[in-house]
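Escalation from tier 1.

The customer reports that the assembly of two entities below gives different C-alpha cells on two consecutive runs. Tier 1 could not reproduce it. I'm attaching the input and our single run for tier 2 to review.
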Amino acid sequence: MSKLVTVYIDNQPYQVEEGQNLLQIALANQIDIPHLCYHPDLHADHNCRLCLVKHDGEVETSCEIQAREGLRIETKDAEIQALRTENLKLILASHRTNCPKCRAQLPCKVAGLMKKYGVTSEEYRRKMLDLAVHKMANAAEFDPNLCVRCGLCISACAEIGINFLRLEGKSSDTHLAHSQNPKVDCIYCGQCTVSCPVGAIREQSHLEAVEEVLADSDKIVIVQMAPSVRASIGEEFGLEPGLNLEKKMFTALRILGFAKIFDVNMGADITTMVEAEELVERLRQKFTGKKPSLPMFTSCCPGWVKFLEFYYPELIPHLTTARSPHIHSGGAYKTWWAKKAGVDPSKIVVVSLMPCTSKKYEASMDKLTFEFAGHKLKPVDLVLTTREIAALLKKHQLDLPNLPDSEADLEGEYSGAAAIYGASGGVMESALRTSAYLLTGQDLPKIDLQEVRGMKGIKKATIKMGEQEIKVAVVATPRNARNILEKIKRGVEEYDYIEFMACPGGCIGGGGQPLQGTVETIKKRIAGLYTIDAQKKVRRAHENSIVQEFLAFVKSEPALSKKILHTSYSAKNKGA
Amino acid sequence: MYLRDDLLAAIEQAGLVGRGGAAFPVARKWRRIKDLQKPKKYVICNASEGEPDVSKDFFLLEHYPAEVFKGLILAMDFLQTKEGYFYINRNYYQVLQAKIDPLLKSCQERGYLINLFIEEPSYIGGETGALLNAIEGKKVQPRYKNPSPSVLGIFGTPVLLHNVETLYDVACVAIGKFDQTRLATISGEGLAKPDVYRVRNDQGVIDILRQTGNYPSFDFFVQVGGGAAGEVLTSKQAETATLSGSGSIKVFPKTTSPYTFLQKLFAFYDRESCGKCSPCRDGAWQLVQLLAGQSEQSELPWAKFSPIIKIMDKGSFCNLGKSIALPVRSYALNILGIKV
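Tier 1 run:
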C-alpha cells in the first residue's frame, strides 16, 4: 500500500494514494473531467488533451499530474472550460456527419460531451482521408475518418495479445490501420470496440435487419439472450453492473414484437451435455491406454477458435466438436421446436443477443447450416450485441429498469450451470459438473468449483472424479492462451481439459458489452452470474428436462446429431 | 588532458548550455547521469536539425566534424561508456558522408562503438523523446515526461543526449578555446551574405547583422531563435535582443504580407506535427484551412486563429505544438499591433 496524501480538487480535500493520477482521482470522486483517451486498464498515451485542469496557475492535463501531498487543482475555471471546448471542436470536427449512430439518432457516447460543452461538431470540417471502412470479417469494422486517434483500440488489441491495429501516417494524415503482417490477424473478439470512445471501431450492425424481420408478418422471430447480457445491460440504463435484468428483458423483447422468447442459456445446457459426453469419451480412451487428443479444448468462443485455427492449426484436433450454445439452441428451434409447434422452419428467424462481436462472424459460417424438412437452414440468422439491443430498446423508448417482470417461454428453461457460462471458468465448471456424473454416475461432492472462478488469466486445478484425477486449466485472452499452448506443445505441462476464452473474464468481458467496461465492472458482472446459479433449483445441465426432451428428439432422428450438435474446424488464412 | 571531474568543472565554469534550443545547463545534465549506478549508458549526438532556416549543425559537421566527434568521445569518456549513437538526418548524411564515415571508423578503431542512425528528416525527429523512440524502432512521437531520458533513454538505459553544437562546445572547453560564442544562422531574401557566423553570446541581433554585412537596405523585421518557433521582432526591438533558441536570425522585408508570413508558418506546423495529440495535429490543419480561403490582400480572420493558437499553446503534448504561439503572437503584436 502506498503512502496516503491529501490533494485538493476545487478546494475540496481528498485522501488518495501518492502517485495516482489526478484524472483517475477526480473520476473516482464523481468530479466530471472530459476525457477520450484515458482508460484505467490500458496504456495511458495522454494524447486527447481534453482533461485539462489548472495546477499552480498552469494549464495541464490531469492524467499527467501525479498526486503528492498538498497538491491543488482547479477543474471549473473559465479558461479551462474554453480550452476544453475548443479542443473538443477540433477533435470532433464533422463527427455527427460521419457517425452512423448520430445519423440514425441512436445514443452515441460523445453526444453527451458535445451537449455539455455546446459543441455541434460542425464548427470545423474534418480532413477526410481517402480510406474506406475496414471490415474485420463480418464481426467488427473501423472507420478511419471517424476515429479520433486516441489509440485505445490499439492498446486493447495489444493487451489481449493480438496487435492487429496500429496508427499510420503523420500529422493530420495520422490514421488507424491494420497490420499487413501475414502472420497477424484479427480474431473478431471486439475488445477494440469496447474501448472506442467515438464509435469509430464498432460491431457490424444487424439492427436494421432485425427491425426488418420484426416488421415482416410472414416470419416467426425467435429471440434468445446470452448468459452475460442480462448481467450487463443495466449499465446501458445507468444501473450497477451485475444486476440480473433477465425478467425485464423478457418483457421488453415481447414488447418489441419477438414471437418467442427463448434463452441461449438453454443452448448452454445442450453444449454442456454434448461437450461433457465427448470429454468423457476421450477420458475413457485415455484410461484404457489409447491416445485421444487431450487436453480437449472448449470451442464455444469463436474468437478463440479463430485464434487457434489461424495461429495454432496443428492443435485443431484438440477442439471439442460440440457447437456453441446459441448455435445449439438455434438448431434446436428450427428442428425440434418447429416440429413440436407445427411451424415451417424456413419461416423462423433466430436472433441472438450476445455480449460478443465474434458471434456475428460465427453465425454467418456456412459450415453450420443444415438440411431439415427439405430446407437449408441457418441455426442463427442475426446477432445483436448488448449495445445494439440497448440501442433498440432506447429507440423504442423502453425504460428497461422500470418494466414489469416476465418469464421466458417454456423452451427457454435453463440450469444454473448455464448461467455461469458467461464467466471465465463457467463452461469448465458446468462441463465438470456433468462429466463427473456421466463418468462416475455420481455428482461431484461440491457443486461450486471455486478454483476455476475469478478474473485470473490462467487458472489451474485438479478435480477428482471417482478414482481419477482430471487436470484442467481455464484461460482467458490470446496472450495467456499462447503461454499455455506453447507449454503443451513442448510437453512442459499436461492437462485433460482446457477452457479458452478470447476476452478478459470470459464472455462477460466480451467485445459486444457496454462501452468502456473496466476490470472492476467485469468483476461485478461476474458476481451477478454466480448469484443466478446459486439461486437456481436446477444447477446441472443433465438435470434440465427441456434439454433432455430435445436430446431425446435428436436421438430419434440419428442423422440430425452430426448436423446440429457437432461441427468441424480448419486452418485459416488471414482475413478468413 | 582533463580528468573527468576537471572537465565537468570547466564546463560548469564556462556556463555551457545545450544548443539544441532549450539552453539546459550541460554540467547539470552530466552530473545527473554520472551519479546513476547503471551498468550501461549511451551518449547520443543529435544531428537532426529539422527547424527551417537553421543550419548551424550542418555548418559544424561540414567544417569541424573532428571537433564534434571529439566532444562526443569526451562525453563518453566522462560517463565511462564505449557506446553511443550518431543520429543524423538523411539529407545531411547524403552530403556529409565522406566527412562522417572516416570519423566513425576511427572512433571504432579506438574502441568506441558509435552507431550511425540515419533518420527520415523531420522536425519532430529531433525532439528528445521522438528521437529515442526512433532509435528503439517505435513511432517517431514525443514521450511522456517521466521517466527522464537520463534515467530511461533507450533499451532501459540512461542516455546523455546532446546537440551537435553542444558537443562542439564541449571539445572547445576541453582544449581551452571556448570563448562564450555561439553560431548564428542568418537568412532572408535580399541579404548580402546570408550564412552561418560565429557571434558573441551577448551580441545584439542588429549588431550581428551589421558586423556580418547583412544589415538590410530595406525596412525589415526579424524572426530570432528558429525559423518556425522563433520570436518576431521589429528592427528596433532587435537592437536590444540577443540570440535565443537554435540561434537563427531571419530577415523579412517589412512589406511581407501577413498572408505570406503565416502561410509558411502554418504549413510548417501542419506538415511537421507528429500526429499524436489533437491540438497540434488538428489545430495546425485547421489553421491552414482558415488561411487557404484568404489572399495577399485579405483581412485575416484573427478571431478564428486565436482559439486554435491558444489550445495549441496550452494543450499540446510536447513543445512543438506549444511553440506556435510565440511566432504568431509576437508577429501579430509587434508587426501588426494585434493581440492574439
